[in-house]
Amino acid sequence: MNVISIQSQVAFGHVGNSAAVFPMQMHGIDVVAVPTTLLSNRPGYPTIRGRVLDADLVADLLRGIEERGAADSAHMILSGYLGSAENANVVADFVARAKAKNPALRYCCDPVLGDRDRGLFVHADIPPLVRDLLCPLADIITPNHFEFEWLCGTKAAAIDQVVKAARAFMARGTVVVTSAELADTPEGEIETLAVERAKAWRVRTPKLPISPNGTGDLFAALLVAARLRGADTAEALSHAASAIFAVLERTAKSGTEEMRIVESAELLTHPPRKFKCIAIIR
Hints:
With about 280 residues, the protein is an alpha/beta fold. It has one domain (about 1-280): Ribokinase (UDP-N-acetylmuramoyl-L-alanine:D-glutamate ligase). The protein is built from 10 helices and 12 strands. The protein has helices at about 15-25, 55-65, 70-75, 85-100, 125-135, 145-150, 160-170, 215-230, 235-255, 265-270, and strands at about 1-10, 30-40, 50, 75-80, 105-110, 115, 120, 140, 175-180, 190-195, 200-205, 280. Strand 9 and strand 10 form a beta hairpin. It is globular. The two termini are about 35 Å apart.
């Protein structure tokens, strides 16, 4: 199975492709990793070096992997942090071209826009492009709860509101909402929900006292890997939620700021604690 993963890359730490590539490889996925940034580390440290890549360079890299046949042989494209509006346009053009040539190709868009603590943390011209160009091309989107509400243009604090908004936003495919705390979410837990046209599911895990960067990038990679290995939506949701909980639990015990992805290698494929999905009847 082959994935083209288009997102940020850091030399230190685990966000973007630096969080996504290894977990997919651990699931036996061959990954073509295309960077949208080359940075020393994620924001949040006292210093950060490097830069967002120029759109011409990103386009050139994507054209180069097309010339090597990567788009023809890929089973999934995964996109994450884009860095600029120009890169959003480049990625949208690439996805459209690739899907036209390879009709079996699926696209997972992780719309990295912001979170509930910081609000939008990307340039103001990026979110509309993600909503209007990338999401319509996607077979799967994986926003966090804050991003989901922004994309849909509505508050969704109850399960019925999430299901209704997801189906209105995306006529086909799967909407996966991470880091959700809804009106009926039990105290001390956090939820991930998946909504399709005819079915919906939710999975709850304990809420841990840490919030490292890159969890959304890791989750999307785990979900994609599970789907490509034959899991249906509910099975993939359960696996991704269980694996990321195991990684975060180990990270919390380590006391480090960065996710302990490499030392959690066995947990990525075989999480010790399995969290089951609950079907939502709506």
